[in-house]
Amino acid sequence: MENIDKNLNENNNLDSQLQTDKIDINLNDIIESLLRRKIYFFSTILIILGFGFNKTFDKPTWQGEFQIVIKKENSSGVGGSSLKQLQSSSSLLSFLNNTGGTSLKTEVKILESPSVLNPIFNFVKKEKKLKNQNSKLKFKKWKNSLSVELFDGTSVLNLIYTDTDKDLIIPVLNKLSKAYQEYSNRDKKSNLNQGIKYLEEQSNILKKTSQNSFNELIKFSIENNFISSSQINSFTESSSKEEGTLPFNFSSTKYAPNASKLLYLSELEAFALEKSYVFKKDSNYMIQLNKKIKKIKDSISKPTEKLIQYRNLSKKANMDELLSINLAKQLELLKIEKGREQNPWELISAPTMLDFPVAPRKLRIMATSMLLGIFFGTIFSLLIDKKSKLIFNENQIQKLIPYPFLRKINIKNKDFLNKLIRMLLKNDLNIKEVVLVPIVDENYRNEILNELNFINENIEKRKVLISNDFEKNKDKEHILMIKKSKSSLILLEEYLKDLKLLSTSVLGWVFLED
Asked: Is this prediction's pTM over 0.70?
């Protein structure tokens, strides 16, 4: 019972071995396989070389390129210092200049997007259509001819464009350069245009409001005898000469004392409001100005209801006019900013085209075709050998056969084969008969039998038989004879299973070559 279990386990192990489809191939085995399948090998090389040779006649591909550097914006130069001063008082412009700091890699991806490239693609498509009515260029295929990359560690953008139409290279590069530079200013220009539009609307509103406040102040002043009708003409004349200030001389002594001080106080408060945009609250200038305002307030007697109303109207007129003036300044600032020539994407090399086409590279194509032909020819030859299921070398079966490998012998060397069998018998005197098992297909059986008949039937009074009948000779010692190119891997697997099931004794196996 124990022997049966052992045999079954050995048989299972053998089955698992047989299912493992691995072939150890060394260089000599590959060379032999190529020589055996030389027709397939060289045919594969010639076919691939033919494709490569045909590729060398493709239409030439031309290449052009240019570089753009993404530089930081600065406001130096002519008018830069004055513009900087205006910017310091313009929170709106500071907001519009804040672009958010997009990373360079993100910028590159945006530049490769259809929204930027579609106009150039449509131009190329139209030009190719004019030259070839059957042209059906697709965006994805065209985009593959465009390479946009950042040089490592720099903010320099390198753009390469290739095309079979030599006349399109420079025009396409020029359009790409223009499109990229327009893209770099697109968002800021849009923000500036929106800001200008908004300020123009608000400026018109504030001008009307300021004029209404001034008219109301003048009307109230005349009705309450704060100013005379003759003074209005002088106020109007002075206002036309000096825009930006109310036409009142608040320090004049023509007015009633309280009215004069009250008007002067209004002027100082308006002046303090204007200067608060420039000076800090705790600056010495603002401290002195506020002290003066407080001193005047303390010196004014308790105003009547009319004076209070007059002061409020005066203050409102001043504030409306200051707001109108400041808004007009910001509007002018935005217009100046829009008019400035800003190119954060600076072209550092003009679009140029190489003097010679970059493809097809005939020598490279032929060398690559030769290497591919050798590679695929070798793979094809090995696959044909493997598919044939014939045994061509001992490496194919060393892991498959669980018995000792005795020797690789040339079958024409009869003396050496006789000597090997005599040595095996001499090592074990208990062996009386040896059975040589030729593992060959039926088509080659007679051939192998004829080749092995030279072996002496009686070696040192012990018999050497040639047979494939394991059951009849199961008590004898066996030597497996595997013939190169004639033994089948499938047949070998079947024999190995039978040997294990019958617990047949096997001395080893011999690989026979021609």
From this structure: no
The closest of 513, 389, 501, 505 to 437, measured between CA atoms, is 505
pLDDT for 125-165, tens place per residue? 998 888 887 778 889 889 999 988 888 778 788 899 999 99
Strand partners, 512: 409, 483
Q: How confident is the model at residue 39 (pLDDT cuts 50, 70, 90)?
A: very high
| Contacts (Cβ under 8 Å, ≥6 apart) of 86 | 93, 329, 333, 336
pLDDT above 70 (res 378): yes
Q: Which amino acid is at 174?
A: N
Report how far apart the first and last C-alpha atoms of the chain are (Å, whole number).
45
DSSP codes, 289-335? HHHHHHHHHHHS----HHHHHHHHHHHHHHHHHHHHHHHHHHHHHHH
d(CA 303, CA 226): 14
d(CA 378, CA 31): 9
Whether the CB-CB separation of 492 and 439 falls below 8 Å is answered with yes
Lowest mean per-residue pLDDT among 33-42, 144-153, 250-259, 367-376: 250-259
Q: What is the pLDDT of residues 330-353, one digit of tens each?
A: 888 877 777 665 555 677 788 889
Which residues, 6 or more positions from 408, have their beta carbon under 8 angstroms from its beta carbon?
394, 510, 511, 513
Q: CA nearest 336: which of 98, 72, 95, 87?
A: 87
Distance CA 124, CA 335 (A): 37
